[in-house]
Write a sequence for this structure.
């Protein structure tokens, strides 16, 4: 499905940080020889729409690795990596490991990391102008053959091009999860995604209990959303296949 911005408010790896790494300056990607530290950002290419870096949400003692719109005066956050594990100072570091995983560490402790089932040779982590943070082979012929992508692990926000639903091959549920509050990205009680019943249905869950549903897909729209129809603001698409 394709939507405009929608917001809901409400692995363990052994750490090895090389002693000699270069610090990212102004780039759209990280390679194995680089790391991202506080005060530096990665800017999406070529339109420079989004940036990835360490920021706080009002409390200087709670720092997060986040993706936000770059050119909006009030930083509009679309994704947070370590929502449940804020950092209390500026000594965190994000590193791309040789197997193709991003590792966020602080004081020699892993706070967050990605996981890929495939070992990567010459991987890079790149921020796209869609707001998607991806890990891929540097020389991949197919630029969309991602080893990992943040769009598969949303925070509380859906942006254009993101999908909500199930990756059936990997049994991966892709859903939005509410924040505790506007300035606290700790995962909250509410989530929004698709349940795999005989007919797919969109549910808002409060914990493990159903809170609201959109009605099953009837071939044109979710039956509980009669006003979901073509319009000039956004387009949507539903896909169900093997």
């Amino acid at each position: 499905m394709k939507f405009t911005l929608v917001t809901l408010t409400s692995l363990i790896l052994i750490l090895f940080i090389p002693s000699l790494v270069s610090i990212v300056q102004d780039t759209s990607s990280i390679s194995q020889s680089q790391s991202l530290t506080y005060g530096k950002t990665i800017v999406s290419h070529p339109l420079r729409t989004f940036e990835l870096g360490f920021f706080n949400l009002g409390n200087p003692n709670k720092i997060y690795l986040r993706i936000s719109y770059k050119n909006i005066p009030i930083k509009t956050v679309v994704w947070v990596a370590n929502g449940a594990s804020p950092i209390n100072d500026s000594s965190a570091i994000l590193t791309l490991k040789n197997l193709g995983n991003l590792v966020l560490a602080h004081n020699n402790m892993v706070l967050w990391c990605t996981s890929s089932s495939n070992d990567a040779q010459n991987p890079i982590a790149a921020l796209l102008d869609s707001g998607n943070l991806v890990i891929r082979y540097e020389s991949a012929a197919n630029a969309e053959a991602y080893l990992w992508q943040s769009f598969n692990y949303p925070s509380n926000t859906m942006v254009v091009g993101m999908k909500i639903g199930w990756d059936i091959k990997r049994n991966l549920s892709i859903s939005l999860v509410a924040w505790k509050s506007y300035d606290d990205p700790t995962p909250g009680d509410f989530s929004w995604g698709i349940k795999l019943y005989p007919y797919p249905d969109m549910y808002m869950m409060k914990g493990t209990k159903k809170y609201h549903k959109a009605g099953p897909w009837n071939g044109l729209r979710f039956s509980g959303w009669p006003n979901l129809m073509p319009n000039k603001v956004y387009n949507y698409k539903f896909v169900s296949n093997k």
In short: The two ends are 17 Å apart (CA to CA). The chain is about 0% helix and 40% strand. The chain has a mean pLDDT of 84.
